[in-house]
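Retro notes, item 3 of 5
We never archived the inputs for the FE3-S4 cluster complex last cycle. Fixing that now. Sequence and ligand:
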Amino acid sequence: MHLTREEEQTYDGEFGWANQVCMRILVRLGELFNATKLIPISSAHVSGVSYKTLGDAPIEFLKSLADADGKAKVKATLNPQSFSPEYLGKKLPKNIREKQFTILEQFERMGFTRSLTCTPYYLHRPEAGSHLAWAESSAVVYANSVLGARTNREGGPSALAAAIIGKTPDYGMHKAENREPTILVNVEKPLQNETEFGALGIHLGEILGDKIPSIHGLKNASEDSLKQLSAALASTGMANMFRRDARSEKRGIEKVNVEARDIKRAMEGLSTATRQEADLVFIGCPHCSLDEIKQVASHVEGKKVKPRTECWVCTSRHIMRNAADYVKIIEKAGAHVLPDMCTIVSWTEMLGISTIMTNSAKTAYYAPTLNKAKTILVPLEECLKTAFKG
Ligand code: F3S
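Structure as it came back at the time:
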C-alpha cells in the first residue's frame, strides 16, 4: 500500500500513539483488501456504542485513545446507545447507566458528536460521490443506494480509526467498478407499504448474499420505504448497496423474479408470536424521519395508548427538535418518543417486554435473538391501531 510521507510518519508514531494505532488499523485493513492507498473521507459514523453490545473490555481502549489525544479529523457521529436517558435511564440499574455514560464520554473527548442515531444522513446529508467510513449497516446501504455516497460496511474499530485519521483505504464500494449491479431483480407485484419493502430486503439478503441487485418494480418508492429495504437487506445479506432500474451491460447477467408469495413468506417468517397482543409497539428502526414522526402524530392525535401497552417511537434528538409539535401530540396520546437509543440493543428483557410489535423487518429479524422477544411484523397503521384506542 502506498503511503504519503505524512501517513508514514503517522504509522511510525511521530504524531502520537492514538494516531499511530489508528493508522495501523487502516493500513492492515487496506492490505487485507488489496487497497493501494488511503483516500480522504467527509465523515465517519461509529457503531458499537451501546454498553449492552460493547461490554467492558473496549472501554479501556477508548479511554486510552482519548487519553492519548485521539481526535476526530472529520465530522464524526455515533450510533444509538442502549437507553434513552430521560425515560428508560430511570428504570435501569445504576452500573449500566454509568458504564454507558463512560463510553459516551470517551467518544466526546475524541470530538465525536453525541448524535446517537442510526440515521446520521438526517443530520448531514452526504453529497453524492463523497467518500465516507460508516459502520451502521442500514445507513451504509442507504448511503450507497439512495444518497449515491460511497462507503464500505465498516466495523466499529475501523470507523473509529477512519474518524481519527480522516481517511479510509480505497477498496470495495469506493471504486466505481464495484458498484455495478451483478444481478437483475424483478419485483412482480407493487409493494404496498414500508413493511413489505423490509420483507423484500430480508428475502433478497437471503438469496443474493453479496451480489448487488438492480431492482426493477419499485416505482415511486419513498425514501422512508427505501430505508426499510436498506436496513433489511443488510440484516440477512452482505450486499452494501442496491440499484434501482439500472441496466447492465454484462452479458448473461443472472435474473431473478420476486413474487408476491416471496414477500408473504418473508413477512410470515418474521412474525413469531402466536397472539396479536404486544407488550411493546415499537416504531423507529431505523430511526424515524421527520415525515414518519408526522405520520405517527396524525394517526394518534386525540387517542390514548391502551393500558398495559408500551408504545415507543425512536428517533434522533435532531429530528425531535424539528418535530417538537408532533412529538407533543404523540406524547399526549401516551406514547414515548425516545431519542438516542436502539430498542434492539437496549435492555427490553429487563423491562419485562416479551412480545414486540413493529413495522420494521430489521427489528423483527433480530428481536427473537437479541431481545429474546416474540415478534409481530405489521405496517405502521396496524401497529398504531393495536397500541391506541379512541
Ligand atoms: Fe437503528 Fe437499532 Fe434498527 S441501530 S437500524 S434502531 S437495530
